[in-house]
Amino acid sequence: MFVIENTLKVKKGFSDRVAAKMAHMGQIEKVPGFLDMNLLKKRGKKEEEYDILLIWSKWESQQAHHSWTSSEMFRKTHDGVRSDYILDSQIAFYDVIGGREAVDQNHNAM
User: GO molecular function terms here (predicted)?
Assistant: First the structure.
């Protein structure tokens, strides 16, 4: 499994815009090899001038992610000028080497 972490530094008060944009962006859930995506907002001090958002996307493989980033759909959803409320963006790549899943009372995966 392969995970991409996109760390966004966003102007205070604009996190909901990022969430709304992600909710309507393309149809990534139909892309072969895509497993899931999460948008997280870091809890921070109220006086900070920005919010930190993490976008985690999980893929069956690095090749599946590469196929997505090489696709026309990716270009359409990521084309254009970056919104002025996004102050910075950094991307990191991870290989999943372990993990746990929740189970029910019968020890079946949930």
Answer: monooxygenase activity
